[in-house]
Design goal:
This protein is an alpha/beta fold and 364 residues long. It is built from twelve helices and 15 strands. The strands form three sheets. Strands 3-4-5-6-7-8-9-10 form an eight-stranded parallel beta barrel, surrounded by six helices. A five-stranded mixed sheet has the order 11-12-13-14-15, with helices on one face. The radius of gyration is 23 Å and the shape is globular.
């Protein structure tokens, strides 16, 4: 029913961190850098901090990171960031095609443009020609706020749904790239509605073999955004739609990555890594589950271990409820226990919980 997407390589310019998407390749997880990068070019400390955080994002399971490039100074900084990143980076361009050309002077992995807002066709052609020369892919991004006038009018008069208008807009934009004999293209159609996101991607995937980047845009704060993204992604991924995903949250990019990876795991599309199970806490609480999980979550999820970790609130049920876990922790009355496969292996003072837990974790 749906087209098998062609293969597109996110990389180029001699980059060693290229990623192939589409075809039968694994679905990739993306996020977006959420701070400005003006001045980074001339600030080695800032550049080092960005490179370090990119590595942390990679360890959580991030495959691609997009950076907003709103001006020439940001473009210059972006080029330097590309040089120190082990993760493929995408330049997000709006309005001024020259920002894409400037970004392409560095080892950028892909360019994201909305052809509808960068002016004349020759501007698109200039970007495409430069991408051809560098072997760099393009992501065509369209959303409900940038529909062509004729399609927007049909939506307003009820003659066309916004989802179909999104799909038709993407098809029009993609046809320009076909005319220019450029097939290294990915399409994204973003709506803040779960159903419109599903409908638009289904309509496009039924007609075209272009890989799709799936996301619910402006999904909202952490909980609301996770719910919306999970509903849309699980539906589409189970149909074989979506070569790459981004969970858009009003939250840290790390939370976007963690959510995206967990969605892929639950859909059976990514395996391995640390699985955390933790109790919600109740009136019997004897151990600060929330605090412990907050301290350990990102570090655990970054580990190259295929294990289950249980964090339980009390010693009454902890080892029993977490007996399937490779390692777990629970506590009460100033004490904590470390258990493995349901058997208690250490009983310690609660103040030593983190230190002893690390010792036992490292022994696995």
């Amino acid at each position: 029913m749906y087209k098998t997407p062609r293969i597109v390589t996110i990389g180029g310019q001699g980059k060693t961190n290229c990623i192939a998407i589409g075809g039968t390749n694994p679905v990739t997880v993306q996020t977006m850098w959420k701070e400005g990068i003006i001045g980074v070019k001339d600030d080695s400390n800032a550049l080092s901090r960005i490179a370090e955080r990119i590595e942390q994002m990679k360890s959580l399971g991030c495959d691609i990171i997009r950076f907003a490039v709103p001006d020439m100074e940001s473009a210059e900084s972006f080029k330097e960031i590309c040089k120190v990143s082990s993760v493929p980076l995408v330049a997000d361009i709006h309005f001024d095609y020259r920002l894409a050309l400037k970004s392409l002077e560095g080892p950028v992995s892909a360019i994201r443009i909305n052809p509808g807002n960068i002016g004349k066709r020759e501007n698109v052609e200039a970007v495409v020609n430069a991408c051809k020369d560098k072997g760099v892919a393009v992501r065509i991004g369209v959303n409900t706020g940038s529909l062509p006038k004729d399609l927007a009018e049909q939506v307003e008069t009820g003659k066309m749904t916004r989802a179909i208008a999104l799909s038709e807009t993407a098809a029009r934009e993609a046809s320009v790239f076909d005319e220019l004999n450029f097939d290294q293209v990915v399409v994204s159609m973003k709506a803040s509605s779960v159903q419109e996101t599903i409908d638009a991607n289904e309509a496009f995937a039924a007609k075209y073999d272009i890989p799709l980047h799936v996301g619910v845009t402006e999904a909202g704060p952490l909980i609301i955004g996770v719910v919306k993204s999970t509903m849309a992604f699980c539906h589409l991924l189970k149909e074989g739609i979506g070569s790459t995903i981004r969970v858009s949250l009003s939250s840290a990019p790390e939370n976007e990555i963690i959510t995206g990876v967990e969605i892929l795991k639950e859909c059976g599309l990514r395996k391995g890594g640390v699985q955390i199970v933790s109790c919600p806490r109740c009136g019997r609480i004897g151990f600060d589950v929330h605090g412990f999980v907050d301290r350990w979550q990102n570090e655990l999820l970054s580990m190259k271990k295929d294990i289950t970790v249980a964090v339980m609130g009390c010693v009454v049920n902890g080892p029993g409820e977490g007996k399937h876990a490779d390692i777990g922790i629970a506590g009460g009355d100033g004490r904590a226990i470390i258990f493995k496969k349901g058997k208690i292996v250490r009983t310690i003072d609660a103040k030593d919980a983190d230190t002893v837990f690390r010792e036992e974790l490292n022994s696995l």
